[in-house]
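In response to reviewer comment 3 from the previous cycle, which asked for concrete evidence that the modeling workflow produces usable outputs, we include below a single protein chain processed end to end. The sequence was submitted unchanged, and the resulting structure tokens are shown without manual editing.
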Amino acid sequence: MFNFLGEIKDNIKNSKNFDLDSFNIINVSGRLLYVEGHLGLVSLSKELISFKVKNGVIMVEGSDMILAELSENTIKICGSIKKVEQI
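The workflow returned the following structure tokens.
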């Protein structure tokens, strides 16, 4: 059986930009970003939200972004997401 999210995760794992052994990230149409496994916020604004993960920091750039959910290990960001990058 075809597993859509599994396929996405496998494709991202093959990318050199992300280490998915420590976190999971899903970007839905550039309007919603859901992350499991964060280690805390670094910065928060409508144009830039960054947070720690095991091997670095994830930077999310866009416009009119809001932090819709923040819990011990999950983040949900809504808005116009233009770029997601691990540094």
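Strands lie at 24-28, 32-36, 41-44, 48-53, 56-70, 74-86. We consider this sufficient to address the reviewer's concern, and the full set will be provided in the supplementary archive.
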